[in-house]
Amino acid sequence: MSRCLLSDGPYTILVPVDSAFAKLDQAELTNLQTSPGLLDEVLGVHVIKGELFSWDFVSGRVIVSDNGHFIRVYKTQQGTYVNDAKVLKWDVEANGAVLIFIDTLLDAPEGTIYEVLRKPEFGLSLLGDFVDAAGLNRTLHRTAGPYTMFAPSADAFAKLSDVITDRLKRDTQLLKYVLEYHVHPGTLHLQSLDRNGTLTTLYRNHNIGVSVTDDIRLNGVAMLEEADIDCDNGVIHIIDHVLLPSSLGSVIG
Question: Where does 152-217 have alpha helices with state H?
């Protein structure tokens, strides 16, 4: 990639500062250091063809990295973010490049939302089976999106009563409604969830409540087990409870 940067500019480079690498645990750091292909892919997410300046980073804009991944811009009271990284310094001009310094290393997406559900390391295979049964696999595999999926873990499904679980397995339309209730049309990284409010979902006219005290809770019950899993068509947050729309309470129960 270094040869490419020397010859094919200009570029905009999102530069993680030293403390960004310090946020990685030892296993992640070792994996980057010993996997040249992975390192090249991750670094490529930080490179944008052409010169962009601070005024080009409009909230909601989606920018494509030089290796074809999506970078989404957010503006909050805390500052401007690209995916889950906060911009620390803008518009440092270098020979053939504009440098923008960020506080977090951007992840290389591991596929679409559906593909991530099917990766065993995330422990979301049960959710993937339900997505297949409800016929939402094509929606979550399209790169059109983007979407934010609040993905219940296997332990979250285990908290449901047998009656509810059996009903969801038998009634695919009901299952589809419940799963659509876990998907927001748009991309929301963690910093966008850090405030009280409501989120729209694919289950039309049914919103998720967000409350923030010492932690973030959805509908007052679900907490985030893992946040900001970047995908080619959005982002996944793994949660510890299945969200059930109140309007379906009498139907499910």
Answer: 154-158, 162-170, 172-180, 190-193
Length of the chain: 253
Q: Which residue, among 49, 67, 53, has the nearest Cα to 10 in the 3D structure?
A: 49
- Tens of pLDDT along 188-209? 888 788 788 999 999 998 999 9
| Per-residue pLDDT at 125 | 94
Q: Are the C-beta atoms of residues 216 and 223 closer than 8 Å to each other?
A: yes
Q: How far is CA 230 from the centre of its chain?
A: 4
pLDDT score of 144: 74
Confidence category of residue 86, pLDDT binned at 50, 70, 90: very high
Tell me what the mean pLDDT of segment 160-172 comes to: 92
3-state secondary structure of 166: helix
Task: Tell me the residue type at 186.
Answer: G
CA neighbor of 62 nearest in space, from 53, 47, 73, 76: 73
145: left (phi over 0), alpha (psi -120 to 50) or beta: left
Give bridge partners of residue 211 from the DSSP assignment: 217
- CA 57 from chain centre, in angstroms, equals 19
Identity of the amino acid at 220: G
Distance CA 216, CA 184 (A): 16
Peptide bond into 109 cis (omega under 30): no
User: What are the pLDDT digits (tens) for 107-128?
Assistant: 888 889 999 999 998 999 999 9
Say if CB 114 and CB 233 are below 8 A apart: no
